[in-house]
Amino acid sequence: MLDYDEEAERYDALRGGEARAAAAADAVLGLLPGRARDLLDVACGTGIVTRRFAAARPGLRVTGVDLAASMTRLAAARLPGAVVRADSRRLPFADARFDAVVSVWLLHLMPDPEDVRTVVGECARVLRPGGVYVTTVHKGASHNVGSDIDAVLAERPPSPVPDDPAEIGARAAGHGLVPAGRARFRGHGQGRSPRRTIADLRRGWFVTLPPAGPLAEEFAARLAALPDQDRPRPDPVFTLRAYRKQPGGNPEGPGGNPEGAGGD
After folding, report:
1. Domain coordinates of the chain in residue numbers?
2. What CATH number is given for 4-144+159-191+234-245 in this structure?
3. Cβ-count burial of 4 within 10 angstroms (0-12 exposed, 13-18 middle, 19+ buried)?
4. CA distances from 92 to 11, 12, 42 (A)
């Protein structure tokens, strides 16, 4: 897994910058109730998306939380006084504190299914009845655009899918959350080129291809043989699912306490 403290300074530039942030924020906001007044962005990263929530809706109080110190510092510069450093699996907020909770590009990072259950449970715990939880699902599949790069990568060892939509739906239901909509948005500027994919491979982007290992270098050689090494292939399209908290929700109780982080 990537070190998100190390990634912080180049995070936005490598992931579509403001164009991707605008697309993500617009899609999330389209799933939130207009009456929402308090929003929590879990694993807010650099705050590039988080600040757009506040800017788009006057009167919406936005709080960001992330575990990586470098990410938190950048987010706090964008939203002074509104960012907390904390574990997404142990949120430092009271029950039923927020009208909306968002976790964009987080669940796919969870190393264990139990961690996913815990994060979803924590998001449900701090959500008020009638409030909405929005999360990305199956992020890995979003990057498969049918390109020649994807054809090469299809032969790598399969990766786990912590954010499988069916599993997330089941976890949500266990905490009193019912489906409340879905949306998609384009990951502007994230279309892969062969050369960029090789760089990502060598810095640990692909969990089943440990960097510097012989298998990783075999795939790097196959990617290096593709044409148009610097031409980006099509951008990914990400999927959001929304869930509304029913009165008397959270039947499984609050989430657990393992150590962990959040981010893209």
Report:
1. 4-144+159-191+234-245
2. 3.40.50.150
3. buried
4. 25, 26, 11
pLDDT tens-place string over residues 78-113: 999 999 999 999 999 999 999 999 999 999 988 889
Contacts of 250 (CB under 8 A, 6+ apart): 95, 121, 124, 125, 175, 176
pTM score over 0.90 = no
Confidence of residue 116 (pLDDT cuts 50, 70, 90): very high
Q: What is the mean pLDDT of the chain?
A: 89
Q: Which token pair is 47?
A: 């705050």
Measured between alpha carbons, how far is 31 from 90 in angstroms, rounded to an integer? 25
**263 Cβ contact partners less than 8 Å away, ≥ 6 residues apart:** 4, 7, 43, 45, 66, 67, 68, 71, 105, 106, 109
Half-sphere exposure of 71 (CA within 13 A, CB side): 29
pLDDT tier for residue 252 given thresholds of 50, 70 and 90: low
Helix (H) or strand (E) holding 218: helix 214-224
Q: How far apart are CA 171 and CA 124, in angstroms?
A: 10
Task: Kindly report, residue by residue over 223-244, the tens digit of the pLDDT.
Answer: 999 999 999 999 999 999 999 9
Q: What six digits make up the tokens of 155?
A: 């032969």
Q: What is the DSSP string of 83-150?
A: EEE--TTS--S-TT-EEEEEESS-GGG-SSHHHHHHHHHHHHHTEEEEEEEEEEE-HHHHT--S-HHH
Cα–Cα dist 2/205, whole Å? 6
Q: In this model, does residue 163 exceed pLDDT 80?
A: yes
